[in-house]
Amino acid sequence: MPTLETTFAGIKCLNPFWLASAPPTNCGEQIMRAFDAGWGGAVWKTIGAPVTNVSSRYSSIDWAGQKMMGFNNIELISDRPTQTNLDEIREVKRRYPKHVVIASLMVESNRESWHDIVDRAEDAGADGLELNFGCPHGMSERGMGSAVGQVPEYCQQITEWVKEKARTPVIVKLTPNISDIRIPARAAKRAKADAVSAINTINSITGINLDTLEPNPMVDGKSSHGGYCGPAVKPIALNMVQQVNSDYIDGDPIPMSGIGGIGTWQDAAEFILLGSGTVQVCTAAMHYGYRIVEDMADGLLNWMRQKGYNTIDDFRGLSLPNVREWKNLNLNYRVVAEIHADKCIGCQLCYTACWDGAHQCIHMDRTEGKAITFAGTDPRYAMHQANPHGMPTPDQRFAQSIMTISTTPIPKLDLDGLGELGPYATPLTRIPRVDEDECVGCNLCSLVCPVPDCITMERRDDPSIAPNTWAERVAAGAVPTGASDPNHGNPNHS
Amino acid sequence: MSEPANSLGHSPVSFYAQSPTPGDVSARFPDLHPAFEKTAAIAEAHRCLYCFDAPCMSACPTHIDVPKFIKKIATGNLEGSAKTILDANILGASCSRACPVDVLCEGACVMHRYNKQPIEIGRLQRFAMDALHESGAPLPFNPGPDTGKRVALIGGGPASLACAAELRRRGIAADIYDARPLPGGLNTYGIAEYKLPLAESLREIDLLSQLGVTFHFNTTVDAAKLASLEAEYDAVFLGMGLGAIHKLGLAGEDLPGVTNALDYIAGYKSGAITTAPAKVAVIGAGNTAIDAANAAVRLGATEVTMVYRRGPEQMSAFSFEYEHAKQEGVKFLWHVVTAGLEGNGKLEALKLAKLEATADGSLVPVQGSEFTLPVDLIILAIGQATHTEFLSGDKVKLERGRILIDRATGQTSNPKYFAGGDCTNGGREVVDAVADGKRAGIGIAAALEAN
């Protein structure tokens, strides 16, 4: 049987699921309930500099009827007395000795302040320290949080101060609000940090109230940029986690606690496949409560069993070698879209997507003879005749459709005995056709298709031809020299 | 009386305010398909896949751009949603309630093949139209600049209303002549109240009259009147629908207690009928027959029986109408013919005989199978006759009583006459009449412009 138990930067973990430093880890009572629900660890809401919070603090964006696709906050670090937080850390560790409690720290940028808070947190029983160099709002205006994380020298200096004192592992939390996240990660490595965590929240304005013209979240008619998180940021986080975990400058990669839009076991698996040793969750727990960890653990274990992985380390980082620079991708690999007519429901989303968003190689001509001329006399569509494939454009088809005369069928008279509850087969006229010669294999049609496995991408390259990359072509001097080179352009579009 | 009820530039008379339906009748006919609550409408709108060149749009005779109006509901643009609907179908509110969506837009929805749950297009359309009506806003269209052209429209039903709207948007005067005291024809008087309340039909026409459509009520058009209209106007649109319901041709048909489905439905909707006697029989098995049978149940009949010469597989009603009638408690006598009406001073019973099919498929009474069904009221619903007597001579070409038209323009064999709706198609849905009227309005405008 696989196990979720793992060790992260020397810290033994019941499972890789930690609550990130945020409102769900505000106090001991919350964290103990989270541990009861199944969380393996918690990074305490950041302790340190005194703050006052505003009201309101959070905002979100919804998508197509789903709530909180993206979430942001302008809340600062813990506004509770430091001693209260430390007393509660001690109490939580006394009651839950096997669960991981990490103290997230942020104090003014001087050696004494950092030495003092490190000492006090470790005396309280924290299993490790996370240095909050990432918080993008409020604290950064006071020279803390992302103001540190954005300057590699500060990041290195403070980490060194902490390491002078720390007896437990030190995790440096990285800000994504920087052009290359590897730079502060290298600074952390130079300062001998034990691990990094990424990403913190992303600078954002989630939206504007169209009645009041005030941005969200609103504080007395005004707002401020806030930290963005939730499902929407996961792709950004995965990219940054991969970048840091594949970076060998200033030393080998150090353990990574992955953060950013994680809410399911699949999300967790992806962060681990890109090298994360633990994952941290906030928004999903704020949305649905601590209970979400049950399926995260259950689902990940089931997947591990199906894949034959016994431990987190068995699959950690396995996808890293599959991320390459673009120039090292095989230019001879070729797929084309295949529409499985038996599954097609006739929505034609692939058709309009291909015409407007891709390469105009999906057509609605399964039942037409080759000689058909289409709506060519309408002056509004004169320009459409210039389309590269000489095929009717979506607008021409639409214009044709609204000119047809249809009537309400009378049962037994018009429906040919089928009755109005007929078999609902997709008419052949509505099933699109892919022109394989023109298809560039971009995936768009398969992405917009609402039906699972209806559009698949099928391999069409000649397996006897060896892979060939841009880098290899450059090395061989076999690339076009500029925009006026006659060899310029994709051979698919000759 | 032939006074114009309104004219452009004057505050129109509200037909809605003149709705005659008594409250206690309305209370017995609550919405069969209730209005969407706002959050439910938005959730349903989000479920729409936003098909391109959507099958629902093609299935709709008026080609409402369904995905377009649904996505506007999803984004909260209800004003734009209503305009999208009205642009294609000026009676979008009535159609959202009266349409047999199962065989039209919702029947064509690709969701049947996806998760088996078509989008509730009819209810979404009603949601957008209700929002427009509740806002008190006028139609989002203006009359076109006056062309000086004038068109007379015979009949005030959906075909003429849709035709008139197209004419007004093109600056052509539209004068509707109707035999009844209120506009809308069958849309107002002939649709089951639980589908389309009479008042809702009038509310929609109130908006239409703001475009400057003029109504002449209580006006019967005969051959002489038609001749004068033809002389007075640049074109004539024939949208008078069908005529009276056929009679059985049996003795006793004049007895009190014998009526027909259209009179019965118009009667209860306009307040002339408020209760039903205990035992009611409906002769026929079409959609109108079912509307009448269900109405008798709602109005208090304890035993309502539908009598039909053939079996359920041959009935011309939609199957969802048949299911609805069964739910209402209507009973069915299949393969039975009415052989006589019995009664002394008023109807008391139907004499019925069982039918069997002969080798050539015709139906003949079974010897000795006659039986008696005691009834207080019978409602005939065995099809409508045509109403074309006033088109004397060869004014327009007819085929089996229907006016022949060019489907694309509504033009008849007489270039000055256009037609649409039931008088051309033999009796279909409101939405078919609207589509006919719309095409004819555009066709008339094109013809007048070409002159």
Structure in words:
The complex is a heterodimer of chains A (494) and B (451). Chain A folds into two domains: 6-323, TIM Barrel; 327-377 and 425-475, Alpha-Beta Plaits (2-Layer Sandwich), CATH 3.30.70.20. With 494 residues, chain A is an alpha/beta fold. In chain A, strands 3-4-7-8-9-10-13-14 form an eight-stranded parallel barrel, surrounded by eight helices. Chain A has a four-stranded antiparallel beta sheet with strand order 5-6-12-11, with no helix packed on it. In chain A, strands 1-2 form a two-stranded antiparallel sheet. Chain A is built from 15 helices and 18 strands. Chain B is an alpha/beta fold. Chain B has three domains: 31-135, Fumarate Reductase Iron-sulfur Protein, Chain B, domain 2 (Orthogonal Bundle), CATH 1.10.1060; 150-243 and 389-450, FAD/NAD(P)-binding domain; 258-380, FAD/NAD(P)-binding domain (3-Layer(bba) Sandwich). A five-stranded parallel beta sheet of chain B has the order 3-2-1-4-16, sandwiched between helices. Chain B has a five-stranded parallel beta sheet with strand order 5-13-6-7-8. In chain B, strands 9, 10, 11 and 12 form a four-stranded antiparallel beta sheet that branches. Chain B is globular. The two termini of chain B are 33 Å apart. Classes of the chains: A alpha/beta (494), B alpha/beta (451). Chain A binds chain B through residues 64-65, 345-349, 351-352, 364, 394, 397-398, 401-402, 404-413, 415, 419-421, 424-426, 430, 450-451, and chain B through 42-43, 46, 49-55, 57-61, 63, 74, 99-100, 102-104, 107, 110-114, 314, 316-319, 407-408, 425, 428-429, 431-432, 435, 439.
Number of domains of chain B: 3
Low-confidence segments of chain A, given as residue ranges, are: 415-421
- CATH class wording of the largest domain in chain A: Alpha Beta
Q: Which fold name fills CATH's third level, the topology of the largest domain in chain B?
A: FAD/NAD(P)-binding domain
The CATH topology assignment of the largest domain in chain A is: TIM Barrel
CATH superfamily annotation of the largest domain in chain A: Aldolase class I
Average pLDDT of chain B: 94
Q: Assign a percent range to the helix content of chain B.
A: 25-40%
Distance between the termini of chain B: 33 Å
Largest sheet of chain B: 5 strands, parallel
